Amino acid sequence: MKRQIEIRPATESDIPTIANVLVDTWRSTFRALLPSDFLDGMSHARQSERHLRMFRKPETIYHVATDPQGHIVGFACGGPTRHPDFQYQNELYAIYVLDSHQGSGVGTTLFRTLAGDLHRSGRTGLIVWVLINNPNRRFYERHGGTLIGRQPITLGSATIEELAYGWDDVLAVRDRS
Q: pTM (2 decimals)?
């Protein structure tokens, strides 16, 4: 019997692969949309250090998606919001799926799993920030996110806009069909 994609809690030893997924996904998704010097300057090692710091915070939740061979093909992480001027107590910090597995439901499963865990933390609502030119931002709209804010962000030599999507009830993500 062929093993399907599995979602499991991440371990500290997964962090280097999580960093690789993030950097590789940014480069493939944004190659024509962001400055090359910014994308080429992204470092697997720096992302690994950044995610290791986040992973070690007890309130941060990480999940990975693994393929039938056990390779990590995506991840999601979240925790308490970093944006106190919004009413949402949870934040989706990151969700990335390798190109080879996008459109297969991996992202949805990761998102729903993380939402369930965030709900169990006792915090309500959810916010996520997404680049306006992210071709995958409709993912959040399909999952019931409401546009609640915008702000500029500088990435290398470009300043672009980020959009915030929010859900009043984090369970709305988990339970959405």
A: 0.92
